[in-house]
Amino acid sequence: MAYKPKAPEIMPDINVVPMADIMLVLLIIFMVVTPMLQKTFSVDMARTENPREMQDADKEDAVVLAVTRDGRIYLGNQQIAQEKITETVRDMIQPRLDKTVYVKSDGRAKYGNVVKVVDEVRAAGVDQIGLLTEKVEKAGGRAIPVPAAPPGG
Fold first, then answer.
1. Which terminus has fewer CB within 10 Å in the chain: N or C?
2. Any idea what DSSP says for residue 39?
């Protein structure tokens, strides 16, 4: 008599291990890709209690300059020399009707560096400059204190 293999018994529950593996792989992919999707350089912006909403700064074609605490300047995600700001911004806003440029700076950036960037943007013929800030969150009617800068920073 020949050996006849038997089929395994039917399992009444669903095997979710492969689905969990796929979800973990997708989570890792999104965690890696998401920081690359930022269209502007990230800085710890200055905080204010009464900021004005500037929804246009989030648009895909918005011109955003960022000033870091160590004085580097970024146009979008690309670092730019201060001497090239006027020329580059002028070329970018030339065909536009809305000639608004947004400047965001680190809360600990030197005031002089931010002023120099604003002067360069003004020299490019910009009609409006938006200074981007973060809103200070209030807890129970009083402002949450912002941590002080570390010594030497």
1. N
2. S
CATH number at residue 121: 3.30.420.270
Report the alpha-carbon angle 141-107-74, nearest 5: 135
Q: Is residue 101 part of a domain?
A: yes
Q: What is the pLDDT of residue 39?
A: 67
pLDDT digits (tens, 9 = 90+) for 73-131: 998 888 899 899 999 999 988 888 888 899 998 888 889 999 999 999 999 988 889 88
* 8 A C-beta contact, residue 100 and residue 75: no
The sign of the torsion formed by the CA atoms of 106, 143, 57, 101 equals negative
Helix residue spans in 34-133 (DSSP H):
85-93, 111-123
What residue numbers bound the domain in which 83 lies?
47-137
Q: Is residue 152 part of a domain?
A: no
Position 68 in a domain: yes
Query: Residue 152's pLDDT is what?
Result: 44
